Amino acid sequence: MDMSRRGFIAAAGASVGGDIAHAQEHGHQHQAVPSDPALRTKALESLLVEKGLVDPKALDALIDTFEHKVGPRNGARVVARAWVDPAYKQRLMTNASGAIAELGYSGLQGEHMLVIENTPTVHNLVVCTLCSCYPWPILGLPPVWYKSAPYRSRSVIDPRGVLREFGLELPEDTEVRVSDSTAEVRYLVLPERPAGTEKMTEEELAALVTRDAMIGVAKVAPPSAGRV
Ligand code: FE
Predict the structure, then answer these.
(1) Which residue in 4, 91, 161, 171 is deepest, having the highest Cβ count within 10 Å?
(2) Is the distance from CB of 179 to CB of 111 less than 8 angstroms?
(3) Is 128 known to be catalytic?
């Protein structure tokens, strides 16, 4: 079976059209019928390609970027480097886009980065009240809740309440700062390095850093937490 994205969707589309027998004849392993959005995407893509409006190679390059090249692991590496290398952290705080590019992460939606640091007395939370602005090169695509109207509105009205719902209860004397992303500026929260990580390598530290901690709806848990 053609396991490429397009091949899978085409085969699944054929099965929806009642052509399962054909597929079985050829020994295809059919998966469950794809979701409605997947089918719509296929229809749209087919039309655009057929009319010569998009180049399938360009689409493949875009998909490959989001599947393999951008995502929160990139941001985690930035955070871990900042934790272990004070000179890097300094560059990150003063010229975030440049320091992030040093690790090879740059591109669309990451051109104008600002890093905001969490400390024992300040907690940062990032939102885009207008839509869903998000630093793609280092965090990938935003989670669904980030784009939701309740998160976008309540983060500025009641940030502590929102954080509580994410399971993060902050002490009363911690200052909560909410940063509103725009098309011009994207934020990365530099979380606090948890206690008990003094002997960990940069790579091990990066593995602790979660997407949510870099948006500011969570802290980075110490290595023992949550482990059996
Ligand atoms: Fe936005």
Answers:
(1) 91
(2) no
(3) yes
